[in-house]
Amino acid sequence: MTLNMRPQAEAIDPTDVSLRLSVDPVLFTLIADRLHVLLRKRTWPPFEGVWALPGAINPPREQLKDTMLAELASLGLGDIWVEQLKTFDRPPQYVDGALTVPGRDPRGRVISVAYFGLVPIGRELAVDDENVRWMPVNHLPPLAFDHAEIVQYALWRLRNKILYSSVAFQLLPPEFTLTQLQRAYEHVLSEALDKRNFRRKVLEAGVVEDTGRCTRQGTRRPARLYRFSHLDFEFR
């Protein structure tokens, strides 16, 4: 009987490792009634002088989460809400030795493990660097690597998640008005919401509680301040 055997694979040198991992956080916040994402201008190749997501190559023997937390801590954002987003991998493709599809990183195969997080309104960064800047998501410059794709995927995930969870509260200070909450939803979803309907849903869901305090707005009527009551909220 003849057995069809697969050809033996070539021996692999365990010291020849060309695969690397990067950790790239997509951080959103609200500034002047617009949704922004945090970018950093690269001052080193590749893509020197081009804006990109803040991130780092995962060092050997370090957990990916630890690399991400260290990157956030360097920005003064070590205590924000954050979750893993997706793994982005596009190795270069060749046909007859010729490059047909470039990879996501010209240095070789670098897989990006992306996270996304939300930064409360008014939160200051720990770095004072003109190369680190918040930019409106609807008016971004050309981005390095495939970071434009990563930002768009994170925005899509946020717009979906905000409909079935209370994640929008991560964009707000501890105490907020219902107008601030509604605007957070509107800026993420990029659409206007009916004021009465929104407030009815929020109050009936019990997702917020009245602090008993009001804002001080000069001659304008003070607005009541609320806080998140740590209950899930589904907005449909």
In short:
With 236 residues, this protein is an alpha+beta fold. The protein has 2 domains: 20-164, Nucleoside Triphosphate Pyrophosphohydrolase (Alpha-Beta Complex); 167-228, Winged helix-like DNA-binding domain superfamily/Winged helix DNA-binding domain (Arc Repressor Mutant, subunit A, Orthogonal Bundle). It has helices at 64-74, 147-164, 178-189, 195-205, and strands at 20-31, 34-41, 51-52, 56-57, 81-88, 93-95, 98-101, 110-118, 132-136, 208-214, 224-228.
Mean pLDDT: 88
CATH architecture term of the largest domain: Alpha-Beta Complex
Overall tally of structural domains: 2
According to DSSP, the number of beta strands is 11
Largest sheet: 7 strands, mixed
CATH superfamily of the largest domain: Nucleoside Triphosphate Pyrophosphohydrolase
Q: What portion of the residues fall into strands of 2 or more residues? A: 25-35%
Q: Give the oligomeric state of the chains in this entry, treating copies of one chain as homo and distinct chains as hetero.
A: single chain
Q: SSE string, helix = H, strand = E? A: EEEEHEEEEEHHHEE
Report the top-level CATH class of the largest domain: Alpha Beta
Q: Percent helix among the residues?
A: 10-25%
Task: Note the gap between the termini.
Answer: 64 Å
**How many whole angstroms does the radius of gyration measure?**
23 Å
At the fold tier of CATH, the topology name of the largest domain is Nucleoside Triphosphate Pyrophosphohydrolase
Query: Which blocks of ≥5 consecutive residues have pLDDT under 50?
Result: 1-10, 12-17
Find the structural class using helix and strand composition. Answer: alpha+beta
C-alpha geometry: elongated
- Specify the number of helices: 4
